[in-house]
Amino acid sequence: MSDPVVLKGFGKGIAVILDSNCDFDVICDHFKQKVINGKNFFSGYEIPIQFIGRRLNSYELQKLIDIMKTFGGVHDIIFPWDEISFHHLVPTSNETDEKKISILEGSKDTKIFKGTLRSGQVVKSDTDVIVIGDVNPGAEVISANNIIILGALRGVAHAGASGNKGAVVFALEMNPVQIRIANIIARAPDEENQDQERVPEVAYIEDDTIVIKPVSQF
């Protein structure tokens, strides 16, 4: 691949083809220049993006998102779900965990929000939602399908708001004020062991009750 980054339009979105063998810093430099040169092409309130050609971890994905927002004027980014493997966004201890996490794949589109959600902020979507950052007390994330928090969930999460009882809430650190899936509600316990080691956890419905388990047990 002569050019480390190639842009191609699809419908109303952009496919970004990345060289799998090129150093990521070089990828970023080329991508930044293409975003600057095509700023009018990128700018908009909401834009679908596909990254093709190489797997991206959470750090790499965040860096590319930063470039689009800083130099391209992009506000919200939609990722067609089949172009992103969820287990490559989440640090896992072994391959078995990755296979278990991949059960979350399957929705048509995903909306990604980057940054900490603070008290009073509400994120709503009729697609899966990924928040790259923390959800603080007083903030709320509402999704018709799954909610994935690549950070700490300390606020309110309502997955399956469309009535989907198969939806899940995932967080790298699970300490919510409230979790709701479809019409079932669970609240955080009154007391918590602060010394307990934090592990990624998933909340889902089992026998009409919301249960929260480590990803390794999901």
Automatic annotation (TrEMBL):
<dbReference type="InterPro" id="IPR036145">
    <property type="entry name" value="MinC_C_sf"/>
</dbReference>
<keyword id="KW-0131">Cell cycle</keyword>
<comment type="subunit">
    <text>Interacts with MinD and FtsZ.</text>
</comment>
<keyword id="KW-0717">Septation</keyword>
<comment type="similarity">
    <text>Belongs to the MinC family.</text>
</comment>
<keyword id="KW-0132">Cell division</keyword>
<comment type="function">
    <text>Cell division inhibitor that blocks the formation of polar Z ring septums. Rapidly oscillates between the poles of the cell to destabilize FtsZ filaments that have formed before they mature into polar Z rings. Prevents FtsZ polymerization.</text>
</comment>
<feature type="domain" description="Septum site-determining protein MinC N-terminal">
    <location>
        <begin position="5"/>
        <end position="71"/>
    </location>
</feature>
<dbReference type="InterPro" id="IPR005526">
    <property type="entry name" value="Septum_form_inhib_MinC_C"/>
</dbReference>
<dbReference type="Pfam" id="PF03775">
    <property type="entry name" value="MinC_C"/>
</dbReference>
<dbReference type="InterPro" id="IPR013033">
    <property type="entry name" value="MinC"/>
</dbReference>
<dbReference type="Pfam" id="PF22642">
    <property type="entry name" value="MinC_N_1"/>
</dbReference>
<feature type="domain" description="Septum formation inhibitor MinC C-terminal">
    <location>
        <begin position="113"/>
        <end position="212"/>
    </location>
</feature>
<protein>
    <recommendedName>
        <fullName>Probable septum site-determining protein MinC</fullName>
    </recommendedName>
</protein>
<dbReference type="InterPro" id="IPR055219">
    <property type="entry name" value="MinC_N_1"/>
</dbReference>
<dbReference type="InterPro" id="IPR016098">
    <property type="entry name" value="CAP/MinC_C"/>
</dbReference>
